[in-house]
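Key result, reporting period 2: structure in, sequence out.
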């Protein structure tokens, strides 16, 4: 293949990404339909890639195409429909298309524009649309999320690109720690054990949150509420403000 073709465009609905160039290796994240990633290295049928969030992993070539030009996606699907929430789309003549050229017709919620200024109000609105979606290790679409993939996808739908893993997201906001009781909708609660972050959820206000743990759901780690999760209370580490006013 020509050396100048250093981009890989995802054409499967969802493409698993691995720690090593093998299907028996640990899955670490996903790439979604319409996403363009940079090829760093090759190993047989495997590509070592870097995604927009800086995350690096291995992906098999049959999930997409190697090419010179990126798929210039400018929108993202944000409803549960024939394609996953999070799918990248392109707008042409007031019509939305997938990377494979299929027209996408939304039902209730039009795709969000990826390069618009952040819209914090979309964080909780879009998060609640995904209530009930199942957990999937390394997942970041409505076909299945892990906790940090859920947070990253929801924030991207609001125009905000976050790092991939929960500990990276914590580091991203580490200088903005606040009292969890004072958190506002859209802030982030972090959890873990022995000083290591292993879980993250989106605050819906105070010690309540929406997160993906088994499935996407709303709970609280305040023992004054009916949906109290004592495991979260035991694992709670800190809360970070994202300094977003969801009322604007």
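The corresponding designed sequence is given below.
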């Amino acid at each position: 293949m020509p050396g100048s073709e250093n981009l890989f465009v995802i054409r499967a609905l969802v493409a698993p990404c691995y720690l090593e160039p093998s299907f028996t290796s640990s899955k670490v994240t996903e790439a979604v339909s319409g996403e363009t990633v940079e090829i760093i290295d090759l190993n047989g049928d495997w590509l070592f890639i870097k995604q927009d969030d800086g995350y690096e992993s291995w992906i098999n070539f049959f999930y997409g195409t190697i090419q010179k030009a990126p798929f210039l996606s400018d929108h993202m699907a944000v409803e549960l429909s024939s394609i996953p929430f999070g799918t990248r789309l392109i707008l042409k003549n007031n019509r939305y298309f997938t990377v494979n050229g299929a027209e996408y017709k939304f039902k209730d919620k039009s795709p969000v524009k990826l390069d618009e200024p952040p819209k914090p109000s979309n964080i909780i609105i879009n998060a609640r649309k995904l209530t009930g979606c199942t957990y999937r290790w390394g997942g970041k679409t409505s076909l299945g999320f892990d906790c940090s993939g859920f947070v990253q996808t929801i924030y991207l739908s609001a125009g905000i690109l976050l790092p991939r893993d929960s500990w990276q997201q914590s580091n991203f906001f580490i200088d903005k720690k606040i009292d969890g009781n004072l958190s506002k909708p859209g802030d982030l609660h972090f959890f873990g054990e022995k000083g290591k972050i292993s879980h993250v959820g989106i605050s819906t206000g105070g010690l309540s949150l929406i997160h993906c743990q088994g499935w996407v759901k709303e709970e609280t780690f305040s023992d004054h509420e009916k949906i109290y999760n004592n495991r979260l209370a035991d694992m709670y580490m800190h809360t970070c403000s994202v300094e977003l006013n969801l009322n604007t």
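The first strand starts at residue 7 and ends at 10. Residues 75-113 form one domain. This case is discussed further under Risks and Mitigation.
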